[in-house]
Structure to design on (188 residues):
């Protein structure tokens, strides 16, 4: 018997009412009020816990056990549904694994072809770089940097995707383009 239906058969303990708790956030509000995007994200992540809302999202419903018992009256039907659900998840997992294997095999074929066509490019593509090692030029440049530029030089690892690059969006930003941002020139 599944745990859900066995819990339905036990007598319910008296339920406590939970009073809403006010939440304080560490960051204060901006001068012109809070950002509507942050409010939308906060509402999606932390929905209110008021019981009389029409939407079940984020609310506590005491009659879930009764509704589940009415929808699935027998334990055998519930276990059959659970097995079918796990079978569905297994099919999804196997399809995902097959797709990953196909992509990996395609990447291996591409690397083999690159090795046959141009061994120099294959070596450059497979070169392992230690991010801690710095050249003499880099050390000299690092000594001249100060403050935020020095911190950016430390945090920037060669070969990784640049952090300064903006995430592509459908609409332009509200505050326009930031002209003062410049890419960090890293000596080779």
């Amino acid at each position: 018997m599944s745990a859900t239906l066995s819990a339905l058969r036990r007598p319910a303990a008296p339920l406590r009412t939970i009073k809403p708790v006010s939440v304080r956030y560490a960051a204060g509000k901006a001068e012109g009020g809070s950002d509507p995007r942050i409010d939308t994200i906060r509402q999606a992540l932390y929905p209110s816990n008021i019981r009389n809302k029409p939407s079940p999202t984020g609310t506590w419903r005491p009659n879930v056990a009764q509704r589940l018992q009415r929808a699935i009256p027998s334990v055998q039907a519930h276990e059959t549904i659970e097995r079918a659900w796990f079978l569905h998840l297994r099919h999804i997992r196997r399809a995902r694994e097959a797709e990953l294997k196909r992509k990996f095999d395609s990447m291996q074929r591409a690397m083999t072809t690159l090795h046959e066509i141009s061994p120099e490019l294959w070596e450059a593509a497979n070169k392992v770089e230690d991010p801690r090692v710095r050249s003499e030029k880099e050390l000299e440049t690092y000594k001249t940097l100060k403050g935020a530029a020095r911190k950016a030089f430390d945090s920037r690892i060669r070969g990784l995707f640049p952090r300064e690059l903006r995430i592509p969006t459908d609409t332009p930003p509200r505050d326009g383009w930031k002209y003062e941002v410049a890419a960090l020139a890293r000596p080779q």
About this structure: The longest helix spans residues 75-117. The helical segments are 3-9, 36-45, 64-71, 75-117, 119-125, 136-144, 148-155. Residues 132-167+180-188 form one domain. The chain is about 50% helix and 0% strand.
